[in-house]
């Protein structure tokens, strides 16, 4: 996976993850990297849309969801 340039990052179709809780302070947004010719999913904090993003391949994203879905909130 390569680092996204600013134009590619701006073109991603971000949406609030269905895995985000009802608490608006704990939301993440996800976007398919296929829209910029890469495999996997980009993840960012919805409160910091210009902040860092994490790029995960399909297997890593599935593991991320499996871990965070059942992790207690801190």
What is the number of helical segments per DSSP (H or I, 4+ residues)?
Answer: 2
Arithmetic mean pLDDT: 84
Question: How many β-strand stretches?
Answer: 4
Beta-strand fraction estimate: 15-25%
Helices and strands, in order, run as HEEEEH
Structural class: alpha+beta
Q: Could you give a short account of the major beta sheet?
A: 4 strands, antiparallel
Radius of gyration: 12 Å
- Helix % is 10-25%
Distance between the termini: 31 Å
Shape: globular
Strands in their spatial order, largest beta sheet: 1-2-3-4
Identify low-pLDDT runs. none
Description:
This protein is of the alpha+beta class. The protein has two helices and four strands; from the N terminus they run αββββα. The chain has helices spanning 6-11, 58-69; strands at 15-16, 28-32, 41-45, 53-56. Strands 1-2-3-4 form a four-stranded antiparallel beta sheet. A hairpin with a 7-residue loop joins β3 (41-45) and β4.
């Amino acid at each position: 996976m390569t680092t996204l340039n600013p134009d590619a990052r701006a073109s991603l179709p971000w949406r609030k993850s269905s895995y985000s809780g009802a608490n608006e302070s704990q939301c993440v947004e996800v976007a398919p990297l296929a829209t910029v010719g890469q495999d996997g999913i980009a993840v960012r904090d919805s409160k910091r849309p210009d902040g860092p993003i994490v790029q995960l391949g399909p297997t890593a994203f599935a593991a991320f969801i499996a871990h965070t879905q059942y992790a207690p909130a801190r």
